[in-house]
């Protein structure tokens, strides 16, 4: 079912980010050449530092909002370029929107010129604050187009539109994955997402911040499971021609996650409550039947096993970079 040709040249936009760097690792391990394109807005050179001496790896610093011309043939394009954490994508909301719309348009045209396969990293955020639960791909969503999350949600929805228009027109073999909350090593410790925040706070002995009551839910997927799903969708034949949810259906309240992190880190930190951000989705869980049927994919690591791999990475990283002292 997965026909992954050997020795391809694969462009990974956003390849210096959390998910992108794991994808670069996996593609190189399969024997492909990887061109990582990143503007380092939220990614880090440290994420791809170990690949610098790899003969199949090339790093290009560029913003996908600028038209990109590749000086060698490209077989596949993965578009992961976009900040993913709410504080980060809201820091420059116009640029976030442009990254998804103008940037995705640029990469689709690049893929068209090269006859390359294309995979767009979309998001469970296209379902907004969902009125259907769990979320199936045929649910159209409940998104506030004028709120602070819209730069991300609506940008990603527009990027999906571009992909399916290019596919319908026979111009690009485009595929769309809707990624649900994913965690693991190389998340930026200060990017503001829940898993990184809670682990960093617990390891540092700082209060764990829960926004709102903590009764809102999320479903957490370990990064290696996600990467396996991305590669499977890019290479499955025929192209399903529909978006595919990739996530772990295990659903937890934010309070349950905080308790689990306290238990697994052995931290004695207290929990404090902060205001719930505007438009924060109340619950989220993927229906992954389509991924099971079309890709033969399902996640392998339950949350406890993924956290057991993630917590030591953060602890090590935080030992190297202690918090700045207040003067
Ligand atoms: P991340 O912020 O760690 O990585 C994003 C990468 O894209 C960074 O390296 C950043 O510097 C780069 N980037 C951002 N804008 C760019 C631009 N205009 N030009 C070039 N590079 C740019 O986030 P992540 O968690 O690795 O997410 C990767 C992709 O997956 C994103 O598209 C995100 O929307 C999607 N996604 C992630 C999750 C998740 O839970 N991790 C959930 C849903 C969707
Ligand atoms: N959240 C929280 N404390 C934090 C960071 C996030 O309670 O320190 C909550 C946030 O309000 C949301 C959930 O955790 O309800 C997941 O937040 P995240 O930013 O990781 O992802 P998203 O909201 O995009 O799913």
UniProtKB/TrEMBL annotation:
Origin organism of this chain? Devosia neptuniae
Lineage, uppermost ranks = Bacteria, Pseudomonadati, Pseudomonadota, Alphaproteobacteria, Hyphomicrobiales
Q: What is this protein called?
A: SDR family oxidoreductase
Name the domain of life. Bacteria
**Where is the signal peptide, in residue numbers?**
none
Q: Which UniProt keywords apply?
A: Decarboxylase, Lyase, NAD
Q: Where is the NAD-dependent epimerase/dehydratase domain?
A: 10-247
Q: Which cofactor does it need?
A: NAD(+)
Q: Which Pfam families match?
A: Epimerase
């Amino acid at each position: 079912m997965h026909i992954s040709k050997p020795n391809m040249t694969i462009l990974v936009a956003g390849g210096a980010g959390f998910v992108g760097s794991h994808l670069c690792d996996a593609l190189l391990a399969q024997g492909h050449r990887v061109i990582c394109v990143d503007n380092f807005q939220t990614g880090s050179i440290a994420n791809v530092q170990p690949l610098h001496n790899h003969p199949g790896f090339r790093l290009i610093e560029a913003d996908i909002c600028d038209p990109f011309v590749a000086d060698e043939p490209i077989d596949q394009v993965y578009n992961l370029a976009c900040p993913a954490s709410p504080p980060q994508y809201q820091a420059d909301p116009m640029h976030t929107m442009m990254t998804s719309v103008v940037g995705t348009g640029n990469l689709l045209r690049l893929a068209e010129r090269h006859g390359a396969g294309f995979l767009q990293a979309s998001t469970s955020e296209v379902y907004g604050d969902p009125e259907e639960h769990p979320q199936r791909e045929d649910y159209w969503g409940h998104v506030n187009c004028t709120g602070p999350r819209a730069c991300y949600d609506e940008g990603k929805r527009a990027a999906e539109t571009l992909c399916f228009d290019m596919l319908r027109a026979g111009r690009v073999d485009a595929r769309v994955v809707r990624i649900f909350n994913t965690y693991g090593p190389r998340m930026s410790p200060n990017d503001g997402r829940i898993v990184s925040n809670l682990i960093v706070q617990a390891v540092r002995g700082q209060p764990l911040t829960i926004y709102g009551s903590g009764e809102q839910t999320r479903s957490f997927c370990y990064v290696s499971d996600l990467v396996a799903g991305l590669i499977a969708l890019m290479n499955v034949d025929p192209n399903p021609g529909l978006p595919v949810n990739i996530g772990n259906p295990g659903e937890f309240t934010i309070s349950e996650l905080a308790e689990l992190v306290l238990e697994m880190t052995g931290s004695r930190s207290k929990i404090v409550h902060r205001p719930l951000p505007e438009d924060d989705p109340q619950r989220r869980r993927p229906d992954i039947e389509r991924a099971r049927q079309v890709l033969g994919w399902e996640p392998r690591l339950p949350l406890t096993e993924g956290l057991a791999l993630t917590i030591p990475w953060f602890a090590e990283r935080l030992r190297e970079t202690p918090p700045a002292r207040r003067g």
